[in-house]
Amino acid sequence: MPKTRESNFDLLRIISAFAVIMLHISYWFLRFDETEVFANCHFPTLFMTSITRFAVPCFFMLSGAFILADERNADYKYFYKKSIKNIGITGAIFCALYVLYRIVKLIASVLILHKHGVDDMLYGMLNIIKSIIVGSPAGHLWYLFTLAGLYLAAPFVIRLATDLRGGGGKPIRHNNDSISCSCKHKLHNE
């Protein structure tokens, strides 16, 4: 049976995408609401921010719905190969570009513009290295890093759900798997 496309999910994606755009725009107004130009925008801006906050959790839920619905994703090799191809390579390229941009900007501010001293440049380089280690080389790419963590867990969750349902899928417990317990076995023996 061919898979049918769920139009409600597509509609939810479109609405959420517009909500994320509105959320970012409203943040811009909040930053500048004390100037004369935006002095009367405080309440409408807070209202817009409040009604658009659903969008990011909605994207997480949609990602989970699409990933968990596909039983093929229970195969580690298949899922991780697909995930690295789809978001891993793109995320790595953009992170590298933003790190390069931050390094060039820092060096330019010290050597060309003379805004900061060499100590500030060393401190700035340490901040860049720290941001890479903690997974936020560019603040607005936080979603990719969070999604990567969820993607790491997805095959395990699919196998767990299959095992708990008693389905014909592969159970969690295999000789070559990193998880060595079977929840179904435990639940039936208690």
Brief write-up:
The chain contains seven helices and no strands.
Features:
disordered C terminus; flat; 7 helices; 190 residues; mainly alpha; 2 domains; single chain
Helix-strand blueprint:
Blueprint: H1 7-31, H2 42-52, H3 55-69, H4 76-112, H5 118-134, H6 142-165, H7 183-188
Descriptive overview:
- There is one protein chain.
- This protein has 2 domains: about 70 residues; about 120 residues, no CATH class.
- The C terminus is likely disordered.
- It is mainly alpha-helical.
- It starts with 6 loop residues before the first helix and ends with a helix.
- Helix 1 runs antiparallel to helix 2, helix 3 packs across helix 6 and helix 4 packs antiparallel against helix 5.
- The chain contains 7 helices and no strands.
> What overall form do the CA principal axes indicate?
flat
The total beta strand count reads 0
Oligomer: single chain
What's the SSE pattern?
HHHHHHH
Q: Major beta sheet, specifics? A: none
Strand content: under 5%
Tell me the structural class: mainly alpha
Secondary structure: helix percent: over 70%
Low-confidence stretches: 170-190
Mean pLDDT: 77
Any idea what the radius of gyration is? 23 Å
Distance between the termini: 39 Å
Number of structural units classed as domains: 2
Helix count equals 7
